[in-house]
Amino acid sequence: MKQKTKEQKLSPMRYIRNNKRRVSVLIVSLSLCLAIIYVTNFLIMSTNSTCKKSWLDPYERMCKIGVTLDLDGEEYRDMNEDELNEIWKEMYREFANKLDGAEDVIKAFPASSTWINIKPPIAQTGYHIPMIEPEYADILLDHMEAKLIEGRLPENPNELVLDKATMLNNFFEVGETYGEGEYTITGMLDCDLYFGYGIMDAKLYNSIYILTDKRVDDATKYFPVIGREYDKENDYVMDYTTQTDDFKNYVENEMEAATKYIYIGIFVLLFISLFVVYTTYLRDRHNEWCLYCSIGYSRRSIYLSIIGELLFTFVTAVLIGLVITALLVYALDMIIMKPKGIACQYFYPDKITEVVCAFVLFFGLLQIPIRYALYKIRTIDAMEDDMY
Fold first, then answer.
1. DSSP symbols for 130-198
2. Residues 6+ apart with CB under 8 A from 386
3. In whole angstroms, what separates CA 97 from the centre of its chain?
4. Is the domain of 195 the same as that of 325?
5. Beta partners for 125?
6. Co-location of 66 and 46 in the same domain
């Protein structure tokens, strides 16, 4: 009767304790790989965050509609331009008055608008600020939760105020002019949005700003309230739905297409480098495994030991990499993002999942050189036989 012998096992921790320097190099390499991938994503995605803050977030609290008026009728034929402009403005004021008290409406007022630039790390974006009559300033500021922290509120035509992030992003200072000297910045606001407003001049109204008590997904519902039918060709709406569509089409999709190859390139270069480092590491340990095999350890036992070492290395690298990444992201926000008024987001679950999946794939690919290294293991007896 054969007596079963218990297979000897190699402890992966024994090698790790005795080769701290080599293991540390691998851990640091993998940790930095994770950090580089995620920080690159953080910098790229800050453009998305900035656009979301300027394009989408304000429309959680408001919406806009624009109405094209036909003043070419017989009754307007003998009127001069000033008279026609006044009729245009009066009709917009009437529309705004009709909207007061409508569903979800806190206040509606006519306005023109001007464009403010915002420069994230990639590309350029911006947003419209309302140019309003002075009487609507208080309710607008209160609704958008903005308060003056420097300078004064605008009082005269073509004066405006902007939030602190916009001021930082454009290197504006209170008292400067904007738009080839057309507008004067009289103050700075504290607001959680990219936001500002100004006092309009003699220009015509081109929109009705509607401050709402909840998000409005379809602002076309306000056209029947003002006694008009929505004309898609000539009228316009800007609500949460239209802004979301624009954000997806012009920001998310474009950024995804533009950065896809950047991610692929980073993954490939980093993992090729790590693959070369690890295969060199395996070659350096060939004689050690030959010795283990010669004194009775099976290839299976050696393989399990290698996998144990690798799992320890990967898990430790991921944990350390997450800490390094968090510190880098925070530092970049404090040093670059906040001082330049750029919006950013720290946590991207989908990107973390992508990195983890990439590490799992890399772990699987490393099985190839490991299996090959095990195949090349030879005992001392076999080596001596080759010599004679």
1. EEE-GGGHHHHHHHTT-EEEEE----STTEEEEEHHHHHHHT--TT-EETTTTEEEEEEEE-SSS-EEE
2. none
3. 39
4. no
5. 118
6. no
Task: Show the domain range for 152.
Answer: 62-214
Question: Which pLDDT score, from 0 to 100, does residue 363 have?
Answer: 83
Q: Encoding tokens for residue 7?
A: 């297979």
SS3 string, 90-101, reads HHHHHHHHHHCC
In a domain, 57, yes or no: no
Q: Is residue 240 part of a domain?
A: no
Is beta strand 125-132 parallel, antiparallel or unpaired with respect to 196-199? Answer: parallel
Number of domains composing the chain: 2
Instruction: Tell me how far apart the alpha carbons of residues 187 and 228 are, in angstroms, rounded to a whole number.
Output: 38
Residue 4 lies in a domain: no
Give the H/E segment covering residue 108.
Answer: strand 105-118
Q: Are residues 292 and 379 in the same domain?
A: yes
C-alpha to C-alpha distance for 353 and 317, rounded to whole angstroms = 16
Q: How deeply is 306 buried, as exposed, middle or buried, from its count of CB atoms within 10 A (0-12, 13-18, 19+)?
A: buried
* Nearest alpha-carbon partner for 298 in 381, 377, 372: 377
Q: Which tens digits make up the pLDDT trace of 212-253? A: 999 999 999 999 999 999 998 889 999 999 999 999 998 888
- For 123-156, the pLDDT digits (tens) are 788 999 999 999 999 999 999 999 999 999 999 9
Q: Are 132 and 109 in contact (CB under 8 A)?
A: yes
Look at residues 214, 239, 267 and tell me which one is the last residue of a structural domain.
Answer: 214
**Does one domain contain both 23 and 98?**
no
Q: What are the CA-CA distances from residue 258 to residues 23, 122, 123, 263 (Å)?
A: 37, 10, 11, 10
